Amino acid sequence: MSTWHSYFKEKGQAPDWPYPIRFEQEQEIDTDVLVIGGGIAGCWAAISAARQGLNVALVEKGDTVRSGAGGPGCDHWCNAPANPLSNVDPDEWAQHMADRPYCNGIGIQIQCRENFDTLLELEQMGGKIRDTKDEYVGAEGRDDKTKFMISPRYTKVHSYVPWAIKPTTFKSNPDQKLNNVVIRVWGSTFKPVLKKECKRLGVKIFDRVMATSLLTEKGVQGGRVIGATGVNNRTGEFMIFKSKATILSTAGAGSIWLISTELGGYCNMMSRTITGDGTVMAWKAGADLTTMESSGVLRIATGHKHKWYTGAGDASYENVPLVDANGKRLPLPIQGWVDAGAMVASPEVDNKIREGILKGEYALPFYGDFPAMPEVERKATWNLMLGEESTTKIIIKTFNEAGYNPGRDLLQSYKFIEGNSLPQWGEAGYGGGILVDWDLKTTLDGLYAAGTQMFAPEDHSYAAATGRYAGRKAAAYARQIGKSKISREQVDREKARVYAPIKRTSGVEWKELHAGIARVMQYYVSEFKTGSLFNMALDVLKRIEGESVPLLFALDPHKLLRSLEDLSLLTYAQIIIQAMKARKASSAPLNFRRIDYPALDPPEWNKFITIKQENGKVKTGELPLTFWGNMKNQYEARNKDYTGVYKRK
Amino acid sequence: MTQKKISAVPNVATPSAPVIFNPDICDGCNTCVEVCQIDVFMPNPEKGKPPIILHPDECWYGGCCVNDCPRPGAIKFNWPLQQRGYWKNKATGEVHQI
Ligand SMILES: Cc1cc2nc3c(=O)[nH]c(=O)nc-3n(C[C@H](O)[C@H](O)[C@H](O)COP(=O)(O)OP(=O)(O)OC[C@H]3O[C@@H](n4cnc5c(N)ncnc54)[C@H](O)[C@@H]3O)c2cc1C
Ligand code: SF4
Ligand code: SF4
Question: How far is A115 from chain B (nearest CA, A)?
Fold first, then answer.
């Protein structure tokens, strides 16, 4: 009797809603610093603001203990050139990583300077970052003195995609020793200790609350941000937060392209809970966004693809040599020590294998040849790397329990047999986010951003280090500013919007709306990008807004949450298209190709396009590609008071 | 044969059960309910009983519910059929699936 249907069959009735219902009731919270999104960046922001002695409130849609993309774990602490085993200078490494066009040089500099301190603080809290139990003695990259485990990633090749970044000889590493900038960690220990530290420091945590809008001074667009609203997704209670400084850390939007009315949990590399809320809140409040026109490629999604991360097992990369069905080695990079960092095969290699398959040279399916690996490396890959990397932990567990033995068995790879992602499933909008300055302040006073919420995000340690930094800067701001009165009219407007779906019991439900939005993106904002299709997309999305949204219905607080997420996606989709319209050129690094402007990266378009709303109208602007200036100098000028690793009291 | 009452119910969501509880081991502590970022489960109205899977179709397959359960064997992951991985014994060539 553990499914709804079996309960119904047995009891003859549906279970009652398990939580008290408080639709329309209000709770008001007064705080110095408000953090929205309790994932990796949000937890770190809350902790670092609370260390400054201020009152901090943290709002999280799920439960902070395991929420977000990094909730289940993390096995690679990337870009940590300040670690004692690194052979490159942090500033030089940062500069090198920031050589990629349309990256975020500010965030990268913060990451490279501060993420090793951040990691040591994690250890203080109880996170596991070293091989303290001597399980991997003899593994390559293990330092016997510090017991740190260096990962092969980036040791020689400095990117997942080896051809995307030019090879360099670092001045700080003239002998070309291994760079040693990525550390293997036991990240499944991280999220619970972050929540514990928040509590220890007195952070007020509001779990199961979805923030829905930002409150601004006098309730006007472009005004200073002075709080936020939210709704509890178990009780339906309305939350009003008043704050001096607010940090957005709700990451990006994960499923704007994917249609599956059956698999509502589908996602890509981000958590299912990531639906563009923070970006949309900032947009409505009048903050500048940038790189919203960029696209990723769909790599993983429950039900669609068979990758490690969201379902079943796939030995398509990461340390394991791949062989064909007859045991013949494939010319794919291993990413482990052998290839020292390469992770993805070049298109030429992929093509060669494809042709080989058709000619009978390689037999499908392919397999990850775990038994061929040296034992300690196999153990480090299976138990530590895959055992700790977020959603892979459960994959390892289920495989082990089902009788898989990496020392004996080949693990099937789904490369080629599952096909490539359809081009229209490109996760456009990935890489887009809120524009920030050297304080990680947005273009609105009182509003900060961290982690994947910012434009051009990177990874876990990036989210952690930028969260920690934003917390510090927001606290400094909050310390010198008074409170403002919130606009009751703005609150009432938001309340009416939030509760509209619960006033109806039939019409359009959230899954249909989600699929409807995704379909528009698949038709008109896909491989064939051009101005006339963008305009059609905007027309249809407007029609959805005018005709379907007024029919949206939600039967309980949970379905209300999903409905409100769809409303975020609907706006997010429109922002993406507005940004795409504004870039009248194609661009390789942005993975953005327009039929009407086919020239790739013409020099006059090598710039950031910024986009915001002013008096409800879309306004675009531009910024030079390295608008942040000299990274080292800018960072140092603003962080003279930085005290390094926190001394726990 | 006694015919049980049949109610009219909508289709079952797909996949219908991302996890399977063992009611003999599970003590209804609801840790899994709390760690789930999606709120797939709700606590069972009867105290001490396994949670009820309310939103199985929204599962992210991140596995925290199983990983964090304090009672080994109380909750087992149940990959949907289309997501079940394969492996092959290198020596014998025998193919298995989760
Ligand atoms: C399978 C997988 C494996 C990965 N492995 C690694 C790795 O080994 N190394 C690495 O560096 N990176 C890895 N990553 C990436 C890493 O997890 C992310 O970069 C990191 O979690 C980003 O942190 P964040 O705080 O920006 O976002 P998240 O951690 O996703 O946090 C965002 C939070 O905001 C909350 N939220 C969203 N909307 C709202 C709202 N409206 N109101 C309140 N709260 C809201 C969400 O619930 C969530 O908790 C992996 C990711 C995945 C999915
Ligand atoms: S399955 Fe485990 S975590 Fe969930 S209620 Fe039962 S004992 Fe608790
Ligand atoms: S796998 Fe994750 S999303 Fe699915 S039920 Fe378990 S905790 Fe919830």
Answer: 25
